[in-house]
Amino acid sequence: MATIEQLGYSAFFIALTCIFAIVARRLNERMSKDGLVKDLIFEAIAAAELCGCCFELIIVADNFGVATYAVFLFTLTIWWGRNWGSATACPYTYMEQIVEGEVSFKEAALKIWAQLMGGCCIFRYVQLYWWLELAETHEGRAFEDCKADLQVNLYLGAFIEGFATLCCRLASKVISEKDARFGAFIDSFIGTSLVVAAFNYSGGYFNPVLATALKWGCAGNSALEHIIVYWIGSCVGAVLSVPLFKTATFRNMFLTEKSKSE
Known about the structure:
Elements: H1 4-31, H2 36-64, H3 66-83, H4 91-100, H5 105-121, H6 123-132, H7 154-178, H8 183-198, H9 208-215, H10 223-246, H11 248-254, H12 256-261
Helix pairs in contact: 1-2, 2-3, 2-5, 2-9, 3-8, 4-5, 4-10, 5-9, 7-8, 7-10, 9-10
């Protein structure tokens, strides 16, 4: 049976990962010239931090339950929002910007590539910690064959990932425009709640890079199925949030006060 001490080893690893990311960001800030290369490194660092922490959150969820997992995720989401700066560690934010005409396709592609490199390469660092088996919850996990999280029909899974991503992006846009006092907490709560709601159906990733880093090649899904659910599903949901957010109906429903004041 998992103990608080074993949970402490997971908390330590997550904290250590965040500290390494802080150091890496500061080194990049000091040593890199402003420009695209610097931004690419920031994206790689953010994705590595995200995926490194979420690998350990799998251990937390498996051994301490979804509620404990949710507390960690809620806290981390707020932390990342305050420390990543302009980095997002998420491909569809740049797809949205392409639709808005804010970035070129080339720049977006390079940033997504940097995210994938950071997210996928971090597993060796995670694997080393698990290999040490400091806690019983890590025993056998370093070289264990992974299993896909999709527990429903392929297209239902894609719909769940897409719809939840759409809700997350719309909520973030509303909170950002309203400049809510506790916006970061509200945004984190909404995102965490949606992740928990989808957890036992699609895994609740809502981020293609995260899903790929954690579950690409796992037993239970083919490469095409993974792409349909976690890339096409999430990205379509995010891109749809751009025109939907601008519709009069949506703005009247969720931005009424601002509309009247204008």
